[in-house]
Structures are given as structure tokens and as C-alpha cells.
């Protein structure tokens, strides 16, 4: 038997604080912040004893656990609300894999565009109901509020909600009427593989 220890009731959530860096060394599935070790996965806590030094703590994903957003992952999300500083979203896909449950994310004003960040206005970039491709730049906190960015050419709005409540996709006739400030992509790259959109149909499978 190896030096790994796993207890049945030590299931940890994303962003959950595990211990101080004075008590252990961060292993797989963890990260350090402000002198503490946090879980970057939802899974079982494991602790490995070291002969000369602190024990190593790791979090191992359960085989049946769902895929979780990780730093650098491209995700598809739906905008829920906006204000002058950020847009709140629900993360629906990681890559092309649909999530069993949604996670909350935030796109801050300074993370919307790579250039002229001081001129960005959130309400001109996104509207509630937009479907957006974004990249995870931070795992966020214990509430799974991931920080996201659209500051790359291949990221941005793939299905846009107009002020009139109608939807359009890049390269469609309805898309030309959207303001130029919107962070819109051409052509759309939906994870479900679809590029056709008919008014009145769901924007994505399982997304109202």
C-alpha cells in the first residue's frame, strides 16, 4: 500500500479552502492563494506523507464527476445580467461537452477586449440572452464564480439578442443591424456544431 490516504467523507468543491501552506504542499487538483491551498476540482481529498517535509495534498476527480471549467478552457455561456463593470453569465459547455449543471461566471469590463480597454462599455458589448464564447482566466472563489475573458479574436458573441428581443447569428441578414461595438464573431462556432438558426428555435440544445 502506498502512502496515500483517502477518507470517504473528504469530498471537496471547486474553490474550497483545504489548509494553510504551512501545513502541506499543494499537489494535483489544487492551487495556492494568500497563503492557503484551495481545491481546483470537485473530487476526493488525498494526502501523501513525505519523509522529509510537509505532506502533499491533492484533489482527485471522481470518475463519475462532470467535466469542470479549468483555466485556459474555452467555454460557451449565456449572459444573465449586465452592469457598468461586468456581465454575469451561466457556463453551459466546456469545449464541445455540455455540463450537467451550469456554473456562474463573470466577464469584467477590462477582460472584454484586448485593446482600448478604457473605451469598452459592457452594455454595448453584451446583452442578457447573448450566447458567448469565452476563455476561463481564473477559477474564482468557493461560489464557483469563474472569471472569463473574450479578449481574443476567436472569442465573443456567437448568438446575439437585440434590443427588440430578436436573435441573430454572424453572417445572417439580421446580424448586420447590431451595433458595431458588440463583441460579435463571424462565423459562429457553437459547440453543438450547428451554424443555422431559425427565429423561434432554441439557440442551443437545452438552452431556453
TrEMBL record:
UniProt main location, coarse: nucleus
Compartments, as annotated in UniProt: Nucleus, Nucleolus
SMART domains in the cross-refs: S1
Sequence segments annotated as region (Disordered): 165-208
Entry's Gene Ontology BP terms: RNA processing
Alphabetic keyword roster: Cytoplasm, Exosome
Native source organism of the sequence: Athene cunicularia (Burrowing owl)
Pfam family, one: EXOSC1
GO cellular component entries: cytoplasm; nuclear exosome (RNase complex); nucleolus
Residue span(s) of domain S1 motif: 70-151
GO molecular function, one term: RNA binding
Name of the protein this chain belongs to: Exosome component 1
InterPro entries: Csl4, EXOSC1_C, Exosome_cplx_N_dom, NA-bd_OB-fold, S1_domain
Domain of life: Eukaryota
Amino acid at each position: 500500500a502506498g502512502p496515500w490516504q483517502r477518507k470517504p467523507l473528504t469530498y471537496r468543491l471547486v474553490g474550497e479552502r483545504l489548509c494553510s501552506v504551512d501545513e502541506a504542499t499543494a499537489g494535483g487538483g489544487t492551487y495556492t492563494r494568500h497563503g492557503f491551498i484551495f481545491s481546483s476540482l470537485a473530487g476526493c481529498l488525498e494526502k501523501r506523507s513525505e519523509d522529509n517535509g510537509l505532506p502533499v495534498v491533492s484533489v482527485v476527480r471522481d470518475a463519475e464527476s462532470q467535466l469542470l471549467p479549468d483555466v485556459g478552457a474555452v467555454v460557451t455561456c449565456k449572459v444573465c445580467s449586465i452592469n457598468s463593470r461586468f456581465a454575469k453569465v451561466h457556463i453551459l459547455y466546456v469545449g464541445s461537452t455540455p455540463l450537467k449543471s451550469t456554473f456562474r461566471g463573470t466577464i469584467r469590463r477590462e477582460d472584454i477586449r484586448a485593446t482600448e480597454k478604457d473605451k469598452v462599455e459592457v452594455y454595448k458589448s453584451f446583452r442578457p440572452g447573448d450566447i458567448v464564447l469565452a476563455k476561463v482566466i481564473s477559477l474564482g472563489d468557493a461560489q464557483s464564480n469563474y472569471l472569463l475573458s473574450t479578449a481574443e479574436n476567436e472569442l465573443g458573441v456567437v448568438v446575439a439578442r437585440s434590443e427588440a428581443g430578436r436573435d441573430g447569428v454572424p453572417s445572417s441578414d439580421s446580424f448586420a443591424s447590431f451595433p458595431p461595438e458588440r463583441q460579435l464573431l463571424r462565423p459562429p462556432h457553437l459547440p453543438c456544431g450547428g451554424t443555422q438558426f431559425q427565429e423561434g428555435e432554441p439557440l442551443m440544445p437545452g438552452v431556453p
